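Case study 2.
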Amino acid sequence: MEKEIELRGNKWLYKFWSWMFRRTQAKANKHQKKMEHHMDKTFEVTNVHFYNPYMLIIQYIFIEMDTKHEIVIQKDFKDAYKEYNKTKELPKEIDLKMFVRARHETAIKKG
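Prediction:
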């Protein structure tokens, strides 16, 4: 003797959230294609400066296009700031390439 399981729910909500999921997936895929476009470019970090323990300024240049950009990152960099002031070298846990690739969309073009 098998019992049928009946799932109850609002069909409209299911359709809405399915549509929302498809829409966000499409936007994520579009954003991923933009990011892949920027990952192909070769860049060189020219200057890194701690303005204060909560702000890091990264200046870089795209080699092929010879364009300069600047990114300002606000985050808790207290430990890295202390280490930078002692040794004048950037700590290994700060990945500059990752910051540049992730935040190039919001970078300020310098020239």
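The longest strand covers residues 43-52.
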